[in-house]
């Protein structure tokens, strides 16, 4: 790389936030780029413009050793685009992200990690020292290691394999719907269990705190911690004031502040060190209120309200973007994106289906899968539509999907699999080729009633000493009405 020589110490360097065009030469290509764009997003250029070196005042900078295609991808991402990348572009982009220290590009690369490119991403990130992407790709490989083991053994150095094998894959975790009761009463729905895929059984993880409610509450996972906000107790729907956080690494529960607006039956989303409480009900009135909890400061603040009042809205995160379903029975499903940086709601697409609307939504790569009831309110055989956020196209998946006791509405995606569960059966689907195909069956979650599901990375030491598989104590069956976490 060309670093330049020191400038005249008596002459002030150009301000770090100064605008104006700058020519950047990479290989045989010259790019005209706004200085402010580079200053705000690239640590390399920020340091260069503040250094006092001659190059910080010149009209052209020559970057040696990088490839033009990688810098082109960098500029596209800085303009707000989310390009799909070939293998060659991925390597060139990783090189640029590492040398120029472009956080937005690193984040985009992490968003597009998939089973098709994870090994390449992992290896290239290790070579160029892009540690954040290296770790994200390693976690993805760990989650799909059974499928990728042979290919990884052929294509990765031994030390990279050892790092993947040192990690713990995400575990499928479930908890029943629980409303706080008298301390002395044993309530099996307070038990959180994880699926031991090796033994094909559900194992005890922990108990909910006595005062915690998962009935009409908001549940989400962020940074491997489970957050429970609100919920109700009793038929009067008294809102539970305390909020709870479970740390999967330490096996500890803590409490934190409750939202300013009491609410239940709302949507909770975890994103970039914030929790977003969206809509819900209070005193049987549906609200448009939205609040965010800043984990660093421990404070809630009000945000832009939803486009219309909404309760129990399906939501999913795809490519680090937040999507929420708003439906108007019985025909229309609107999908809005909440954009945290601008604090605004944007209508992304509308799905119109006769006598049907979206009940559950999950994301896989850049696809949103919307599960909806079949014809004439048939909830046992659901239909599924796929919306691709890159192309903006809808696709109807062929066939109908068995939704016995609401299992499909508990779908959680890990790698290229979707896990669903009810009392009778845990069913894993393989996602790909424009359809979901049943892959394997394991025993169901041993609890009656509604189920919340999510993913947590559990320490190997704790999983190895986990208690025996749990058994349902009441021996009764019931109609499940599960909710995805």
TrEMBL record:
PANTHER family recorded: KELCH REPEAT AND BTB DOMAIN-CONTAINING PROTEIN 13-LIKE (PTHR46375:SF6), KELCH REPEAT AND BTB DOMAIN-CONTAINING PROTEIN 13-RELATED (PTHR46375)
Polar residues compositional bias, start-end: 476-485
Residue ranges of the TM segments: none
Keywords: Kelch repeat, Repeat
Biased composition (Basic and acidic residues): 464-474
Region (Disordered): 462-485
Domain BTB: 20-87
Protein name from the UniProt record: BTB domain-containing protein
The keyword Repeat is assigned to this record: yes
Keyword Transferase: no
């Amino acid at each position: 790389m060309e670093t330049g020589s020191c400038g005249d110490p008596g002459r002030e360097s150009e301000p770090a936030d100064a605008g104006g065009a700058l020519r950047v030469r990479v290989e045989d290509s010259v790019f005209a780029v706004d200085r402010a764009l580079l200053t705000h997003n690239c640590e390399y250029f920020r340091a260069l413009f503040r250094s006092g070196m001659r190059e910080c005042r010149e009209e052209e900078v020559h970057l040696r050793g990088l490839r033009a295609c990688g810098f082109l991808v960098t500029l596209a991402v800085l303009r707000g685009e989310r390009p799909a990348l070939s293998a060659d572009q991925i390597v060139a982009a990783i090189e640029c992200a590492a040398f120029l220290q472009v956080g937005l590009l690193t984040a985009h690369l992490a968003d597009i990690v998939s089973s098709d490119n994870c090994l390449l991403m992992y290896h290239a990130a290790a070579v160029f020292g892009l540690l954040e992407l290296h770790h994200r790709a390693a976690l993805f490989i760990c989650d799909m290691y059974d499928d990728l083991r042979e290919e990884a053994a052929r294509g990765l150095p031994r030390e990279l394999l050892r790092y993947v094998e040192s990690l713990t894959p995400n575990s499928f975790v479930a908890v029943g719907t629980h409303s706080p009761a008298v301390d002395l009463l044993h309530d099996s729905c307070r038990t959180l269990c994880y699926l031991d895929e090796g033994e094909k059984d559900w194992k005890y993880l922990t108990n909910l705190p006595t005062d915690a409610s998962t009935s009409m509450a908001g549940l989400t996972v962020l940074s491997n911690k489970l957050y429970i906000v609100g919920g109700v107790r009793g038929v009067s729907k008294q809102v539970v004031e305390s909020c709870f956080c479970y740390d999967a690494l330490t096996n500890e529960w803590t409490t934190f502040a409750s939202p300013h607006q009491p609410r239940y039956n709302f949507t909770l989303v975890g994103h970039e060190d914030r929790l977003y409480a969206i809509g819900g009900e209070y005193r049987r009135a549906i609200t448009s209120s939205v609040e965010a909890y800043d984990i660093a400061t421990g404070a809630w603040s009000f945000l832009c309200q939803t486009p219309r009042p909404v309760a129990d809205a399906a939501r999913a995160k795809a490519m680090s973007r937040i999507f929420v379903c708003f439906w108007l029975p019985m025909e229309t499903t609107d999908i809005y994106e909440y954009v945290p940086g601008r604090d605004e709601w944007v209508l992304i697409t509308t799905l119109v289906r006769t006598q049907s609307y979206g009940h559950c939504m999950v994301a896989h790569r850049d696809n949103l899968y919307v599960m909806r009831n079949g014809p004439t309110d048939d909830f046992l055989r659901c239909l599924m539509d796929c919306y691709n956020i890159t192309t903006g196209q809808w696709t109807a998946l062929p066939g109908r999907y068995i939704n016995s006791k609401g299992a499909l509405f508990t779908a959680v995606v890990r790698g290229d699999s979707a896990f669903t569960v009810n009392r009778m059966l845990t069913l894993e689907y393989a996602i790909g080729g424009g359809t979901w195909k049943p892959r394997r069956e394991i025993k169901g979650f041993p609890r009656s009633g509604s189920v919340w599901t999510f993913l947590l990375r559990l320490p190997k030491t704790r999983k190895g000493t986990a208690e025996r598989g749990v058994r349902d104590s009441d021996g009764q069956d019931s109609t499940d009405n599960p909710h995805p976490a």
